[in-house]
Amino acid sequence: MPLETTGTPSSAPFALTAIDRDVLAMSDDDFHPQTWEELKQIIAENNLSVLKRWPSDLKRYIKWSAETKKAYGSVPNFVRKERLKWVTLPSSTPESGPKFAIKNPVPFADEADYKILVNDWPYGLASGIRHIIVWLKMRLESEPTRGDMTPESRQLVEDFHTNQVCEPCQGFTW
């Protein structure tokens, strides 16, 4: 993918944010990785749009995204097919989003209904911070205004994390 003199891709496969453009204009040496304290605040405020990747990783991610979109139609299609190995139900529509066969309607109750993966394209986080993603076949309830999880959904995630992912666990956030 050609880079303009500003260091930003001339035809990125997704809309670049102002943060992306700023990151692309710097070198890895000039980049400030987000700290644990910053990450906790970002997540608590559901302000995920400020997460950023290392400049070199962002350039590779843009290139990979373009290639993946060409091969699979979208990055989510790639994730479902190659990483999760989940098949969408015929009842899925663009309006409903993908639907999957589930073993148990209770979120996190059956291991076949979720997967835990390390993020293939992690954000630019301080050393020692790992980014895992828990993929769930069913949707958790969210608040319509912000898209953030409801208190009930947060409790489900908290219970799952405590009981399945990392017990006892210090220094995690979601």
From TrEMBL:
Designated name of the protein: Uncharacterized protein
InterPro entries with a match to the protein in the record: DUF3605
Pfam families xref list: DUF3605
One Gene Ontology biological process: N-acetylglucosamine metabolic process
UniProt GO cellular component terms: cytoplasm
